[in-house]
Design goal:
The protein is α/β, with parallel strands linked by helices. 36% of the residues lie in helices and 14% in strands. The strands form 2 sheets. It has an 8-stranded mixed sheet, with helices on both faces. It has a two-stranded parallel sheet with strand order 1-5.
Length: 351
């Protein structure tokens, strides 16, 4: 006998099986993938745009001495030409106690800007017996933002030479670590060559990222057996990767960065005396970074001077000069005295 079938054609006694619901596995997989894809996207963006994240230049059509707080008899615009043909502008500022002969030379230069050196003006733009501070800025602003730091150093009896990096201020180009390293070597060669300043009269001064620039130049000059007189580092990190890891612990910063500024690797090769200055409230380059860098310094310089570390209580990253002007001025003055570049009875003024 034939089996009875229901109206749907199913055999009698058999139940219709429910249609299985779609698997939720794909949904879970997608939920897991979304954060991963976002993380990978961040890694790509950091890698591609890292120079924009590192360098924050302020630009200007022209930065003239007349726009600065320095008079024409104490400051002049100077230029160097880089290895790839860019003309970089900067300032040369005389110390407060500059002789009348030197200020007269600067007046002549102001009246005839086409003259590039003091020799052509009938004198000397640099005094070969006085200290010259070659100043390297941090990653923001331009040289006109550093007028207070410049005054502090000129109050200590030093000439100050400060160039903006390529792409900063009124300078052409785009900043990059290797290009900056080549550019500052041109500045060093200009000072020691054309301007005839002995290497032993030049102190390199670097603030923040500029400390990485200064350490590299100092190491290269020491390797060439023409070391600078000294090196001053203010609020400087051990390496850009190290301080980056402090701020972004969830990123593999050490693997991503091409712009490394690895001062910790270069400082052991710096044989000149060293002074480090760091605020203990620095939330951009923590004091621990400065301390870490200090562990890589030689125990003494080639001349037997041990490295110094000045900690500024209650001072942050961008208020060093305003919050601790007297302490920094005294530390710099005493450092120059130890180098034999300032008279022991010469007192710096604190404005």
């Amino acid at each position: 006998m034939a089996e009875l079938q229901n109206s749907d054609g199913d055999r009698a006694g058999e139940r219709t099986q429910p249609t299985p619901e779609p698997s939720t596995g794909r949904g879970v997989f997608r939920l897991l993938c979304l954060p991963l894809l976002a993380y990978v996207a961040v890694l790509i963006l950091v890698t591609v745009f890292q120079r924009r994240l590192i360098y924050h230049p302020a630009t200007a059509g022209a930065i003239e001495i007349s726009d600065s707080p320095f008079s024409a008899e104490r400051a002049r615009t100077v230029t160097v030409t880089t290895s790839d043909g860019l003309v970089l502008r900067g300032w040369h500022v005389l110390p407060n106690n500059a002789s009348p002969e030197r200020t007269a030379v600067f007046r002549q230069l102001a009246e005839n800007p086409a003259l590039n050196t003091g020799q052509e003006a009938g004198g000397t733009a640099f005094d070969g017996t006085r200290v010259v501070v070659l100043y390297f800025c941090g990653n923001g602003g331009h040289r006109a933002y550093r007028d207070d730091s410049i005054r502090l150093l000129t109050n200590c009896g030093a000439d100050v030479v400060i160039f903006d990096y390529r792409g900063y201020g009124d300078n052409p180009g785009t900043p990059a670590a290797e290009d900056i390293a080549r550019d500052v070597r041109v500045q060093w060669d200009w000072l020691t060559g054309q301007e005839q300043v002995p290497a032993g009269k030049i102190v390199l001064f670097g603030e923040s990222l500029g400390g990485g620039v200064a350490v590299r130049l100092a190491a290269e000059a020491c390797a060439d057996e023409a070391p600078p007189a000294g090196l001053i580092l203010r609020s400087t990190f051990s390496s850009l990767a190290s301080v980056g890891a402090v701020h972004f612990p969830w990123l593999p910063v050490r693997w991503l960065l091409r712009e490394r500024f690895d001062s910790a690797a270069r400082l052991p090769h710096v044989t000149c005396p060293l002074l480090q200055i760091h605020g203990d409230r620095d939330d951009i380059v923590p004091l621990s970074e400065g301390r870490l860098l200090a562990t890589h310094a030689p125990r003494t310089s080639a001349s037997g001077i041990p490295p110094e570390f000045l900690t500024l209580p209650g001072v942050g990253h961008n208020n060093v000069t305003s919050m601790a002007r007297r302490e920094v001025s005294q530390a710099v003055q005493q450092f120059l005295q130890r180098l034999g570049l300032a008279e022991s009875d010469e007192k710096s003024s604190v404005e």
